[in-house]
Amino acid sequence: MVNLIINGKKITAQEDTMILEAARAAGIDIPTLCAHESVSRSGACRLCVVEMRKGNRSKIVTSCLYPVEEGIVVETKNERVLNVRRLVLELLLARNPESDVIADLAKKLSVTPQPRFTMDTDKGKCILCRSCVRVCEEVVGVSAIGLSRRGSQKTVGPPYNEESAVCIGCGACAFICPTGHIEMETTEDKRIIWGRTFKMKTCDVCGRYFAPEDQLKYISKITGVPLKELAVCMDCH
Ligand code: SF4
Ligand code: FES
């Protein structure tokens, strides 16, 4: 176990715990956008910055990626931290002016769009955190989407922005996306995501549409559970 201090509070945490988790376990909130417990961390949004002091040296670190250490002193909302966080939000606001999530976070810290940053109007709400890519690869296991192009042109989606043959329409990417960038429309017998339309399956018990057929076929294939045993929705199980 490791002893540290966060915002003046003495805390004990397991080795290898990230500062973010140690803080949250102690009831100390640190704002985040891209850190999700289901996928590996990218450190993309930088919103979770904190000040970490070791001996007489201090630095700003991303708390979702920085593990606890014996004797460190952490500040999550002193003026230095808040200034960095405000700058991060100014940049996020400029890059994704359409995102309500970012606008709400900015409002909480009294951050307004800054004329010194040019507004990007072609990025939608994507902060390029890769959580969608990681969940598709690490949790679902199909790798239907990825990042393409370089620099300011970078975007997320299926290769060449064409319909993905391996996508199963599960929607995990849309559920994990912190900013709501990924559009998914589910209407009764159809789900549309990444430009492809998936047929939904009805529950054998209640008759309600509950999952894309391709998703059920994929689960059956990787688990060996017969398809007919997967034809019942969560509510009727
Ligand atoms: S679409 Fe969402 S989850 Fe994927 S990289 Fe962009 S912000 Fe992150
Ligand atoms: S939450 Fe830590 S960098 Fe995004």
Report on this structure.
There is one protein chain. This protein has a five-stranded mixed beta sheet, with helices on both faces. The mean pLDDT is 94. α2 (79-95) packs antiparallel against α3 (100-108). It contains six helices and eleven strands. It has helices at 19-25, 79-95, 100-108, 131-140, 172-176, 213-223; strands at residues 2-6, 9-13, 49-54, 57-62, 73-75, 146-148, 155-157, 184-187, 190-193, 196-202, 209-212. The chain folds into two domains: 2-108, Roll (Ubiquitin-like (UB roll)), CATH 3.10.20.740; 131-236, no CATH class. 25% of the residues lie in helices and 21% in strands. The chain is an alpha+beta fold and 237 residues long. Residues 126-132, 156, 176-179, 181-182 line the site of iron/sulfur cluster.
